[in-house]
Design goal:
The complex is a heterodimer of chains A (132) and B (196).
Chain A: H1 2-32, H2 40-48, E1 51-52, E2 59-60, H3 63-66, E3 74-75, E4 82-83, H4 98-112, H5 119-130
Antiparallel strand pairs in A: 1-2, 3-4
Chain B: H1 2-25, H2 40-45, H3 57-64, H4 77-84, H5 99-111, H6 120-128, H7 142-148, H8 168-171, E1 186-187, E2 191-192
Classes of the chains: A mainly alpha (132), B mainly alpha (196).
Chain lengths: 132, 196
């Protein structure tokens, strides 16, 4: 029991450290890729923009799955599975893991936009989400 | 002498209890063709769990964040290999993974696939497939279809609270634990489902 508690404490403090790091890590990487200014408003606009899917002809946007209130849980548009809130203020593990940020940007940009998002777009979106 | 009588009586009672339990456990009257069953005792002991539950944390995280983490024992290895080889087009979704994660998960799925699992539903799913079938959807296996064909469309497909058979845990309240018994079925907006 004590050991379990100990592990939890260690993991918890580790995640707190990662929290501060993951986002700044990402920004450092974006800057290395040529991003000079980051615009949260552009990120917000991109987040709510609708993109026409080539295959289905239907409009897709981030809100399809994540909903309109990012402090609330979203719902996978196809499977109905709950998606934890995107706002770090509502879900403290959000944006705390570089690997996850990259994975979901890759997958979800491809699904929503039909291509990978550029470093600029990702930086903007991340700066928008970060403040929620 | 007395103690010997006690032992014999106790053994007798235990035997009767065990036989009763086996009879109760043997509730799948419609399942013929059980050539690959382990026999009654094996069946009794594997009764509680229909498929091996998912214990792999990586699988739960990577696959279970978008959908129910289907137990590997619900499809044959050849299906999993095929599916994991085309994650970019995963039922019209992009489910790309890093190469190392993809390899690890494929290994886990193949190792625990229905053809390698000694669990009731795994065996029955396998028995319902021909050797060359590699279905990508559990819902398309003949065993699945047979087990769900009495359920009217309005309860699942046309049920606004459900919409599809793919959400195992929406009705099978113990699905995550690996139990798909009809006794634990509770259809959203409809309620309990009784097979009889």
């Amino acid at each position: 029991m004590i050991r379990k508690l100990g592990i939890t404490v260690v993991l918890f403090s580790a995640s707190t450290v990662i929290f501060a790091d993951a986002i700044s890590d990402m920004f450092t990487q974006y800057k290395a890729q040529g991003v000079t200014s980051i615009d949260a408003k552009a990120g917000q606009a991109m987040w709510s923009k609708e993109f026409k899917n080539q295959k289905t002809g239907k409009m897709r946007s981030c809100t399809n799955c994540h909903g309109n209130d990012l402090t609330q849980a979203g719902k996978h548009v196809k499977t109905g599975k709950e998606i934890k809130p995107m706002a770090p203020s509502a879900y403290n593990k959000r944006l705390t893991d570089v690997k996850k940020i990259k994975k979901w940007f890759k997958r979800n940009c491809k699904w929503t936009v039909g291509r990978e998002c550029s470093a600029q777009e990702q930086a903007d979106i991340l700066s928008y989400l970060q403040k929620l | 002498m007395k103690s010997l009588t006690k032992i014999i009586t106790a053994t007798g009672i235990a035997g009767i209890l065990l036989t009763t339990a086996i009879v109760i456990a043997d509730d799948d009257r419609y399942e013929k063709n059980e050539r690959h069953e382990k026999g009654y005792l094996g069946k009794f002991f594997s009764k509680k769990l229909d498929v091996a539950p998912v214990k792999n944390a990586l699988y739960k995280e990577e696959c279970g964040s978008c959908h129910f983490a289907y137990q590997p024992g619900l499809l044959p290895a050849r299906s999993w290999t095929k599916m994991m080889g085309d994650l970019e087009n995963h039922f019209d979704e992009n489910a790309e993974l890093d190469k190392d994660v993809q390899t690890k998960l494929t290994q886990y799925l193949v190792k625990n696939a229905a053809d390698h699992a000694n669990y009731k539903r795994s065996r029955r799913i396998m028995n319902s497939l021909s050797k060359t079938d590699s279905p990508l959807r559990i819902t398309e296996t003949p065993y699945f279809i047979r087990k769900h064909n009495e359920i009217p469309k309005r309860m699942v497909k046309d049920n606004p609270k459900l919409g599809s058979f793919s959400k195992c845990a929406a009705c099978h309240t113990y699905a995550e634990k690996g139990s798909y018994d009809d006794d634990a079925v509770n259809i959203p907006g409809i309620g309990r489902w009784d097979d009889d």
